[in-house]
Write a structure and sequence with these properties.
Elements: H1 12-29, H2 36-43, H3 47-54, H4 57-65, H5 71-79, H6 86-99, H7 102-115, H8 117-139, H9 146-166, H10 177-193
Helix pairs in contact: 1-2, 1-4, 1-8, 3-4, 4-8, 5-8, 6-10, 7-8, 7-9, 9-10
Length: 198
């Protein structure tokens, strides 16, 4: 029997082949430099197959990490009120998501990123292009200050995730959600709108 050459159709392995190609290219070239056409060529499928399964490059990127939330949905809700009290809104959303069943997936993702350079590169690229870039655009932050401000916010949230949900350091791990938001929100607010002078 002669094996047919050419692009794959939608077999059960097609999705995984696309995801493998996307992970490689996103990790090596970054989100912006990776095209749907390049992923399709690497996976040996028609680009239309990617659009069929995921719709957009952003959704495919989210699938490569199995990221548990959609930043395109969550971020506009957090930033809708502008910069005032963004710290509390961001802390409240963060704690709500991590306290839900989705938090288990988030914890697994962080553990994987800490032990796997490939996943770490994907995670850093995802945070930069899908989350931080969106926040900067929505809040209209000063372009000169924005990188430092958003990285400080990210450090606060990553530390909270690590200590409360992964290491489970007491008493933080057992604090009521509202108390965590009350304590952490002002620090996030200062990183977004406070002075950056020493």
């Amino acid at each position: 029997m002669i094996k047919r050459s050419g692009r794959r159709r939608g077999s059960p392995d097609t999705r995984e082949s696309i995801l493998d190609a996307a992970r490689r290219l996103f990790a090596d070239k970054g989100f912006d430099a990776t095209t749907v056409r390049a992923i399709a060529a690497d996976a040996g499928v028609d680009p239309a197959m990617i659009h069929h399964f995921w719709g957009t490059k952003e959704e495919l990127f989210r699938a490569t990490l199995q990221f548990p939330i959609d930043p395109a949905t969550e971020i506009p809700e957090i930033t809708a009120g502008g910069k005032d009290e963004i710290g509390v809104r961001l802390a409240r959303t963060f704690v709500r998501i991590w306290d839900s069943p989705v938090g288990t997936t988030g914890a697994a993702l962080i553990r994987s990123a800490m032990s796997n350079d490939w996943t770490l590169r994907l995670m850093r690229e995802f945070l930069t292009t899908q989350i931080l870039r969106r926040v900067v655009a929505e809040l209209d932050l000063d372009p000169k200050e924005a990188p430092l401000r958003v990285s400080l916010v990210a450090s606060q949230l990553a530390g909270l995730a690590m200590m409360r949900y992964i290491i489970k350091l007491e008493p933080l791990a057992s604090l009521p959600s509202d108390q965590v938001v009350t304590l952490v929100g002002p620090t996030i607010q200062r990183y977004v709108t406070g002075s950056l002078e020493a």
